[in-house]
Amino acid sequence: MTDLTARTLQGSELDDYFDVFRAAFLLDDELLHFRGVLDAGRSHGVFDGDELIGVASRLAPRLALPGGTSAPLAAVTAVGVKPGHRRRGVLTRLMRAQLHSLHEDGGAPVAALYASEGAIYGRFGYAVGTYEAKLSVPGKTPFKSTVDIDPRPVRELGREAALEFVHRFYPTVERDHAGRLSRDDSAWEVRVAADRPGDAGEGKPRFAVHPDGYAIYRPEKGWNDRGPDFKLHVQELVAATPRAYAALWRYLLDVDFAGEVRWDKAAVDEPVVHLLANPRTAGRRVVDGLWLRLVDLDRALRARTYSAPLDTVLEVTDAFCPWNAGRWRLRVDDDGNAEVTRSEDAAALDVDITDLASVYLGGNTFAGLARAGRLGDADPDALRRASRAFATDVAPHCQEGF
Ligand SMILES: CC(=O)SCCNC(=O)CCNC(=O)[C@H](O)C(C)(C)COP(=O)(O)OP(=O)(O)OC[C@H]1O[C@@H](n2cnc3c(N)ncnc32)[C@H](O)[C@@H]1OP(=O)(O)O
Questions:
Q1: Residue 59 clears pLDDT 80, i.e. is over it
Q2: Are residues 10 and 85 part of one domain?
Q3: Interface predicted TM-score (ipTM) over 0.95
Q4: Atom 9 in ligand 1: which residue has the minimum CA distance?
């Protein structure tokens, strides 16, 4: 058997990359547009002799963090190993090469991905850091009579005018929610509002724009014996004020032909349920969203701010990135800013790096992990303080796939 080698790719190898990716994901021509956003310098390959058999890349947006800060993110994507070469440690080599290079180069302190299957990435130190709701609301569902709707109209804009508006508007709200990503032009074109029909029967994106927000949605045609029964698939809905949020939801729910408004990547605490006269009409199924990996825990923990002061010592295990293992002191001052240093003091909490990843954005709590038996015999007071410090007012939420 030939030796396997892992390395960063050259620009001339991106076609081969895409061939491996398509073979791994059993694709025909879907996702071809995605090729344009892959950067060879941020892509790793594993070779069996001269043959490229495994690939992993990363995009480089910034990730909004609790407290309104942000940090560079390694947004890991398009990971695949050619059928016929699996379960020989190829993915393990890719993950090692990627995480080690981020650590050695002082690159993004945090990595994130959407997992194709939930059993793959825990062994590499990833854990579910955000959740998302598959939300559905029947068309024409009434609001409570007390809902305050911004009376300025929501207008459908053509693609060019709408993109001009949303490009300007989105950065003003980007840091309102931990979990949101910064976007360059290609992010809009490829990830958020690709000008092509969706993969599951949805049409091209449409843009409903209000002075204080917007919704991007795709209609899916449908007729039954009683008439039109379309579904509107929300791609994203962003509003700067509660009144604009209500106006955009009212607009979507009232679109003629729409039997149902669906949002597959809604926040788990999506406020629309508080607008509905009968909140039970909203269906919600919660699934995992972003899987997070703290590449360098000290840099990652310093990058966010915290909800309460804290002075605690963590004993950290990290089998895949050993530079994170050991004892760390986390001190948070009254303004929520953290200092993270090595420590010799007795640890108050024993945590694996996956536990820190799961609480990092506020999507899970130390208390919740302890109730699952993950934190051993942790001192209840230390747990409470840590949970309070890491807590966030709103659930972290990433609206876009990558
Ligand atoms: C961010 C993203 O892009 S997510 C998309 C990931 N890609 C895909 O799902 C495409 C289809 N699948 C594949 O390409 C491959 O099967 C991969 C990438 C999932 C795994 O690649 P492999 O080279 O086979 O993984 P590797 O041999 O390094 O496995 C490492 C460990 O993970 C386990 N593992 C690998 N894939 C899976 C899986 N799908 N489910 C459960 N365990 C898995 C292996 O059994 C092995 O366990 P061990 O350490 O206990 O022996």
A1: yes
A2: yes
A3: yes
A4: 116
Q: What is the pTM of this model?
A: 0.96
Residue that is last in its domain, among 286, 308, 333: 286
Side chain identity, residue 19? D
83 CB within 6 A, ligand 1: no
Residue 23: C-alpha distances to residues 48, 52, 80, 165, 302 (Å):
16, 12, 8, 38, 40
Find the catalytic residue in 18, 114, 121, 214: 121
**Ligand 1 proximity of 57 Cβ (cutoff 6 Å):** no
Q: Is the CB of 345 under 6 A from ligand 1?
A: no
What is the pLDDT at residue 372?
95
Cα 177 from chain centre: 11
CATH code of residue 358: 3.30.1050.10
Is pLDDT at 2 greater than 90 in this prediction?
A: no
d(CA 219, CA 231): 6
Per residue in 228-283, pLDDT (tens digit) is: 999 999 999 999 999 999 999 999 999 999 999 999 999 999 999 999 999 999 99
The one catalytic residue among 214, 230, 360, 402: 402
Residue 98 in domain: yes
Query: Could you read off the pLDDT of 354-389 as tens digits, one per residue?
Result: 999 999 999 999 999 999 999 988 999 999 999 999
Residue 336 has pLDDT above 70, yes or no: yes
Q: Give the residue whose CA is nearest to atom 1 of ligand 1.
A: 77
Query: Is 390 designated active site?
Result: no
Distances (CA, A) of 300 to 98, 391, 402: 17, 16, 21
> Using CA positions, which residue lies closest to atom 25 of ligand 1?
91
Measured between alpha carbons, how far is residue 307 from residues 66, 112, 258 in Å? 9, 23, 41
Q: Are residues 319 and 230 in the same domain?
A: no
Residues 306 and 281 in one domain: no
Kindly state whether residues 91 and 141 are assigned to the same domain. Answer: no
Domain hosting residue 26, numbered range: 4-108
Neighbour-count burial of 60, counting CB atoms closer than 10 A to its CB (0-12 exposed, 13-18 middle, 19+ buried): middle
Average pLDDT of every residue of the chain: 96
CA distances from 261 to 65, 173, 195, 305 (A): 29, 23, 20, 35
Give CA separation, 224 vs 227, 228, 230, 232, in Å: 5, 6, 9, 16
What is the CATH number for 231?
A: 3.40.630.30
Cβ partners under 8 Å of residue 87, min gap 6: none
